Amino acid sequence: MGTRDARDTDWDGVRLHVVSGKGGTGKTTVAAALALALAAGGRKVLLVEVEGRQGIAQVFDLPPLPYEERKIAVAPDGGDVYALAIDPEAAMLDYLEMFYGMKRMGKALTRIGVVDFATTIAPGLRDVLVTGKTSEAVRRRDPRTGRRVYDAVVMDAPPTGRIVRFLNVTQEVAGLARVGPIRHHADLVRGVFTSPETAVHFVTLLEEMPVQETLDGIAELRETKLPVGGIFINMVRPAGLPDPVLEAAFHKRFDTAELAVGLKATGLAERDAGPLAEALAREIAEHAQRVELENRERRTLASVGTPCYDLPLLPDGADLAGLYELADTLRTRGAA
Asked: pLDDT tens digits for 10-39?
């Protein structure tokens, strides 16, 4: 493996990057790009999925991932990205083996539905199992060298509306087990997720609903003393026109006649230039309105006081080449 380089980023010292966001904002795509960016330069990063949607497989154009850590991509300059799609039932079996030496019995319990029953009556236990598998990967060391197995772990986490409850696992299981292995396990997980080595990032669009959910999520994190990360503003489109033109169009001071003159200068017939100029002026005005709304949402996000990172709208969609483009953008802007 290549040399693991030290680099100056906004999240120096963070080893667990939790990525949340409202549905439709591109959360999984951004998590995948962040994993590639963090792995660049010969590092080893684990990308974890916890919702069972096989989203990681889709963005990397791979078959469905099994419940095991496997290499899925080579990052720029030789780093490696591994992936793990966590299955709560399999995590339960790991848990029984780890704490009770009962993996064989756990398989029998699975067949009669006890595992489903346990996680149904205690939903917090499911979150402990899933987050516990992630925190174990963060803490894991190579027994031969004593070094961390992964330089960083990226979690493609649940949506913004559920993220605080998902991460706040100790409180969720407090009534289930006040002592014993389950409580000890939950406390270990809590220790990882509340440490300075963790950052909870949000993915948003410059639209009112995802921005408001991001603000609400950050406020909840701060209230529960969970570590707030950055804001990834996804699918950002260029303004496309100079600021004076946009401002004039927004305030309805755009000179349609001047536009018509310009169209005629290109050789367009006078009878066509006028109607086309009016149609273009309407489109420019609508575009200016959208840009102003996006700028307003950007100012709102900036008021939160955490780093924001613009990620461009990919013209060809979030294919594999697009992931590497986003990863490069994240590195350039200091996010990884």
From this structure: 999 999 999 999 999 999 999 999 999 999
In this prediction the pTM is 0.85
Strand duo 16-21 + 152-156: pairing: parallel
Domains of the chain: 16-237+313-332 (3.40.50.300), 243-290 (no CATH)
Query: Do 170 and 113 form a contact (C-beta atoms < 8 A)?
Result: no
- Do residues 210 and 194 touch, judged by C-beta distance below 8 A? no
Alpha-carbon distance 89 to 26, whole Å?
A: 27
Judged by DSSP in three states, 299 sits in helix
Residue the block writes with tokens 């979150």: 127
Task: Tell me how many degrees the CA angle 234-81-235 measures, rounded to the nearest 5.
Answer: 10
Do 30 and 203 form a contact (C-beta atoms < 8 A)?
yes
Pairing of strands 44-49, 228-236: unpaired
If one counts every other C-beta atom within 10 angstroms of the C-beta of residue 301, the result is: 19
Cα gap 229→274, rounded to integer Å: 51
